[in-house]
Specification:
This protein is an alpha/beta fold and about 325 residues long. It has 10 helices and 11 strands. The longest helix has 21 residues. The protein is elongated, with a radius of gyration of 23 Å. About 30% of the residues are buried.
């Protein structure tokens, strides 16, 4: 009989949950900053521009003084030259508030390689959370299937990473996806503009998906979509009579996959083009990631492209 101390058990559980933090991926992307493409709201001083005027960092413009304005913000130099009272306005700097929206529905369990879609999606989320917290940004996490499973409010402390990873670790895939309902609840519950990172296999009705994304875009969130698919879903390499087990209330199917391959790949390409173009029309950053991809290379490419785009603005 083996007796394990409670403390040792907790340590083992924490180590198991932190499997989503791949050291190689972290080391490659740690040099990159994940900055919001659009202006964002927040309450912590930092490096992201806010759409609101404050009195803290960078001078923006003057405006005429009106009774009731704080006289501490009068520009006396302008008064001495023009005999006019004007007030200085500044653009405050604020940290990003980011929410990771991670799909843990049953279809995310698919995959028989080193990493299934669930593991891949959680690894992406953990790496981005690490990077954002390193920048002192506030990060929260929502895991979902038919309904929200775990909700972790955004925090900026580095120790908050453990709470995010634990939330994903306990959210084992099991139910069907209801993407539109989830994105509606996210939109209604998070009024402040910020960054929304959706990580999902997007196996849902596309019209419902786009309605959900439209709700987020209407609130002017900076939206990123990481579309996670298994290598076999993308290549359909099956041979011989095969039983395909249905997920998310779909029936099983026994067939010769060679008779389906051409039609499947054609429908897949049409689906991927529709999703990619739909995101592009809404100004949403989109990346398709296969479970066979090197995540460090894919995330570095994605973040570098965002930084390059921001530098041109």
């Amino acid at each position: 009989m083996v007796v394990t101390k409670p403390g040792a058990a907790r340590t083992t559980a924490n180590q198991e949950a932190r499997r989503f933090l791949d050291p190689k991926t972290i080391s490659r992307i740690a040099r990159l900053d994940l900055r919001a493409r659009h202006v964002v709201e927040g309450f912590i001083s930092g490096m992201h521009q806010s759409p609101f005027f404050g009195h803290s960092v960078e001078f923006v413009q003057h405006r005429e003084y009106t009774p009731g304005d704080d006289i501490r913000h009068l520009d006396w130099k302008v008064w001495s030259r023009t005999d006019r009272f004007v007030v200085k306005q500044y653009e405050e700097e604020t940290n990003l508030r980011c929410h990771l929206i991670v799909d843990v529905s049953e279809s995310m369990q698919y995959g028989d390689g080193p990493m299934n879609k669930y593991g891949c999606g959680c690894t992406i989320a953990a790496c981005l959370a690490y990077l954002l917290l390193r920048q002192q940004d506030a990060v929260g996490c929502i895991t979902f299937d038919r309904a929200p499973r775990q909700i972790i409010p955004p925090r900026s402390q580095q120790t908050h990473l453990d709470a995010i990873i634990k939330a994903m670790d306990v959210s084992r895939p099991r139910e069907k996806t209801d993407m539109e309902m989830i994105l509606r609840r996210v939109t209604d519950s998070i009024p402040q503009r910020g960054m929304m990172i959706l990580i999902s296999d997007l196996l849902t009705d596309r019209a419902a998906l786009f309605r959900g994304l439209d709700m987020l875009a209407h609130r002017r969130h900076d939206i990123l979509v990481f579309h996670v698919m298994d290598e076999k879903e993308l290549q359909f390499p099956f041979e011989g009579t095969t039983k395909f087990e249905g997920m998310e209330e779909q029936p099983d199917l026994i067939c010769d996959p060679r008779a389906l391959r051409d039609g499947y790949l054609e429908a897949l390409e049409e689906y991927l083009v529709e999703v990619r173009r739909g995101c592009a029309r809404r100004g949403i950053d989109y990346m398709l990631i296969s479970t066979a991809d090197y995540l460090d290379a894919m995330l570095s490419k994605f973040l570098s492209a965002r930084m390059a785009f921001k530098g041109k603005r």
